Amino acid sequence: MMSELDLNVSQKAALSLFSGDSGENPFSLIKQLRDTGPVIPVSLPMGGTDRGQWLVTRMEEASQVLKDHAHFTVDPLSIDGNENILKAYVENIDPDAPPTFFTGKSMLSVDEPDHRRLRRLVSKAFTPKYMESLRPRVQQIADELLDQVQAQGEMDLVKDYAYPLPIHVISDMLGVPKADRPQIQTWSSAIAHGLGLGVREPGVEEHLKAFGDYTAQLVAEKRKHPADDLISQLIAIEEEGDRLSEPELLSMITLLIFAGHETTSNLIATGAMMLLDHPEQLEKLKADLSLAPSAVEELLRFNGPATIAGPRFATEDVELAGQQIKKGDMVIPVLKSANRDELQFEQSEDLDVARHINRHLAFGHGIHSCLGAPLARVEGDIAFTTLLKRMPNLRLNIPRENIEWHLALSSQSLAALPVAF
Question: Sheet holding 53-56: strands in order across?
């Protein structure tokens, strides 16, 4: 049993983590939570619900929550009595705005059988085989981006490389015009930093509405002028009567645009920062670039883009690691904690680009695991290999203490990463 002192410590750590007060390195707080126990009762400033709240900090229990869809659901409205539980997510959003994946029905917000139907519609475009076929195009984009800065001897790795690479890749797949991509980056960044679990920064609704309006306009254009891209394919599927509604279509496309670049951008930028912070690991990787795939997995484990998984809700009373979870309770897997679980990884707090990893939870687990994981792996592999091959003298261009981060509960990202080479 956890002592009252343990619970007080974990409650303070949880509040610091969820308020964004943890700074760029939340791992000391995360370790406090993990040391308290695998499943911890907390009281978070969520609003909209008086149900119990739990954090899951270790790999086995987090995996169980993510894959046990009989006892844990992503859809709180499927549970009797939880009608108000989404208040913290949707209050103040214009009900007449086009749906986004934050407000409409998407793969993130439904379980089976709707999830299987929605995911099946796009899964053929995200197979590992197809992702591998994109390597030449990803390589071309990486080289073109570095060509633009090579002669300068310096760049902002976020603005000049980590952000544009994945957004060009996913936009090419979807058929998003090049001229629109900078604006999409602006919306996505504002939403990622301004919207979280129980957090809604001023002005974020405007970005949500603008993104939704844009998606609706893009779909309308593709209906008039279909092309050889994924959006046109999804429209064709919908028009063939495969039970994809207009709100589902808009939510799906917004999700693919947003998730298709935001987290991968963070992987590349934060991964580069982690390598610069661990020069011996950077040298090991530069000396053997064949380690790039394992380095990507280790960077995902060590400090992946997502701090937490989307909350799950208990569909009935259930025991988890000795704790009694009540029907309707909110259960939040802390991915960055599970990925440093000492029971799963030797020297779990150390970065090792040659580490052999059997599994991590950076892409989630179960039916809601990241659809774009194969694409992120290809992009990460090429991004780091190309960067270090062409710029082996990569180094920070400002003092380390001057690096600025965007901090949010669900993720953290670099505001900028000035480097010289």
Answer: 39-42, 53-56, 330-333, 312-314, 72-73
pLDDT of 130: 86
Quick one: CA dihedral 178, 125, 111, 42, positive or negative? Answer: negative
Q: How many residues does the chain have?
A: 421
Any residues with CB less than 8 A from the CB of 223 and at least 6 apart, and which?
Answer: 235
Q: What pLDDT digit, counting tens, does each position of 209-232 carry?
A: 888 899 999 999 999 999 999 999
Do 267 and 300 touch, CB atoms closer than 8 A?
A: yes
Q: Select from 310, 304, 369, 383 the least CA-distant residue to 337.
A: 304
pTM score over 0.70: yes
Exposure string of 258-281, with b = 16+ CB inside 10 Å and e = fewer, is: bbbbbbbbbbbbbbbbbbbebeeb
> Residues 264, 394: contact at Cβ < 8 Å?
no
